[in-house]
Amino acid sequence: MLLQPIVNLVEILSRKGVNHAIISPGSRNAPLTIAFVRHPDIKTLSISDERSAAFIAMGMAQNLKKPVSICCTSGSAAYNYAPAVAEAFFQEIPLIILTADRPKEWIHQHDGQTIYQTDIFGKHVKQSFELGADYSHPDAIWHIERTVNHAINLADTFPKGPVHINIPLREPFYPAENEQINFDKNVRVIERLNTENTLSKEIWATLLQNIEQYEKVLIAGGQHEYDPALTAVLQKLQEEFNFPVLGDAIANLKFDSISHHDIFLNQDIENLKPELLITFGKSFISKSFKTFLRKNKAIEHWHLSLDNHLIDTFQSLTKVIPVQPQYFFEKLLEDVDFEQFRNGDDEERDGSYLEEWKKNNMKAKSYLEHFFLADFHKKQLNEFYAIKKLFDALPADSQLHLANSMSVRYANYIGTDYNKKIEVFANRGTSGIDGCVSTALGAALSTDKLVYLLIGDLAFFYDRNALWNRYVPNNLRIILINNHGGGIFRMIDGPSKQAELADYFETVQSYNAEKTAIEADIDYFNAKTVDEFHTFSTVFLEPNGKAKIFEIETNSVYNTEIFKQFKAGFSD
Q1: Residue pair 326/233 in contact by the 8 Å Cβ criterion
Q2: pLDDT digits (tens, 9 = 90+) for 191-232
């Protein structure tokens, strides 16, 4: 007979809105697998590679904006979750991690698939829980129900993140043939009411006084989901009160904000130095921006975050304000407007600081467009040109996932048309190349939108197990930039000057994705010339049909020449 508390555990997950589970096959986790699969309100996928499975779940949770469960057997299977768990932790994405385990007495007894699983993910989960091996005593049942409720509530509380429940299980693992499983509808569900942090009138008065002291106020957004309400209020603050608003591609600011700073901040423009810096969101891609603000420190730096960690990216932090960005900026807009009305001040806030930012941003944007009109782009295919042309043609209201290394950097230089409302995602929590295909596939499985992935060859081949399943959705589109090695290392001063560049940094390889596409039953296109690129890009961008891979093969040395020419050209 299947253990009833395990059945009830799955029922609690469902009742609390965890309706998707990614399961990796195994024997020790069989009771969990059977309960998940037989639950009428939970959608399950079977993904053999645990590392891929966890990233797929993370991509789904990002889109669904609620926890997704992952479940695996005992032993090293649990360790394979670690890269995705760490990424989810730093991106604040909720996952419910269920790892089956042997009872404690069998650890280090030369028994199969047995390792130390307690607290296996360390500080990369919000909390680890462990059930006892007893599933019969009333106190044990109470403990299981309490623990599952606690874990789900914690995962879905700001800042959100992964939680881990380790579950020791004894044999037998399987119910009898044709045995019915009964989900207890009277199982205990403990609700946690979420509240929204606000600031007192006194604090607001002080903050407003501080803002009025400064002429140069810069608002900067790190990685953040697309939020139409937040976008609207930030646009008003820029347009009505002359606060420049800046964000990388992954900040998802869908208006005419400062977005080409990665190009023009390679120069030290001292009059752009802010007096007050207000930041929100998570990581920033732009090294130029981080370097600029560390060199030109603001007098005050306020960071909006519900995270208990003190994050001082620009080495200038003076206040942590634990509220949601939308609440803060809407209140700021309202109070600045009211103060001007109360004081009878009809004059606009001095706009010279905003104009300086906009002037440099427009100059960079104009240079970017002009650069790609050069004749040399028509003679030999380079990856920078190919990405620009594809980004220009992306359909409105689609999703764009960016792999790490050069993919995310190219995208930050180029950007997307903000009028198209293309939401941009990237695994910038840990910035690893592992799991980029899986994350995009998970996103595609949880939306009807077209999901595009821009990825380099090393990141693609590292995670091609993402396509080793029967669920590859038709709305997935992969743009594979194959320069047959880690091209970024030719663009960085350190490794590019070393004798070991080719073998130990760039890691030259001769693979392409054609056989992978055939095995996964995905449409495949390959371009090595400019003409082939333009021919196949039209077909690739058609919205109908199966999942597609568009592989663009280029020369790493030539790509480096073009990119260095681009960077030097703006300075000149």
Answers
A1: yes
A2: 998 888 888 999 999 999 999 899 999 999 999 999 999 999
Which residues of the chain fall below pLDDT 50? 341-342, 344
Spatial separation of the C-alpha atoms in residues 403 and 76, rounded to whole Å: 26
Residue 236 confidence (pLDDT): 94
**136: three-class secondary structure by DSSP:** coil
Q: Give yes or no on whether 4-168 and 201-359 have one common fold.
A: yes
Asked if 294 contacts 274 with a C-beta cutoff of 8 angstroms, the reply is no
Give the DSSP per-residue string, 287-313: HHHHHHHHHS--SEEEEE---SS---T
Residues 6+ apart with CB under 8 A from 289: 220, 246, 248, 261, 262, 265
| CATH code at 4-168 | 3.40.50.970
pLDDT at 341: 42
Residue for token pair 């560049």: 501
Q: How far apart are CA 52 and CA 24, in angstroms?
A: 10
pLDDT of residue 180: 83
DSSP letter assigned to residue 247: E
The span from the first CA to the last CA of the chain, in angstroms, equals 75
Q: Which of 1.10.3720.10, 3.40.50.1220, 3.40.50.300, 3.40.190.10 would CATH assign to domain 201-359?
A: 3.40.50.1220
Domain locations along the chain: 4-168, 201-359, 372-571
Taking CA 57 as the corner, what is the angle to CA 51 and CA 60, rounded to the nearest 5 degrees?
145
Give the 3-state secondary structure of residue 108: coil
Helix (H, G, I), strand (E, B) or coil at 454: strand
In which element (H, E) is residue 17 found? none
Contacts for 266 with CB less than 8 Å, ≥ 6 apart: 288, 567, 570, 571
Q: Record the tokens describing residue 563, joined without a space.
A: 């990119």
Q: Which amino acid is at 121?
A: F
Q: Is 369 exposed, middle or buried (0-12, 13-18, 19+ CB in 10 A)?
A: exposed
**Per-residue pLDDT tens digits for 92-106:** 999 999 999 888 877
Domain 372-571 classified CATH 3.40.50.970?
Answer: yes
Q: How many CB atoms lie within 10 A of CB 146?
A: 13
Q: Which helix (H) or strand (E) holds 81?
A: none
Report the distance separating Cα 305 and Cα 570, nearest Å: 35
What region, left, alpha or beta, does residue 510 occupy, with left being phi > 0 and alpha being psi -120 to 50 degrees? alpha
Long-range contact pairs involving 122-127 (C-beta distance under 8 Å, separation at least 24): 124/82, 124/85, 124/86, 124/89, 124/162, 125/85, 125/89, 125/97, 125/161, 125/162, 125/163, 125/164, 126/89, 126/154, 126/155, 126/161, 126/162, 126/163, 127/151, 127/154, 127/163, 127/164
pLDDT at site 314: 94
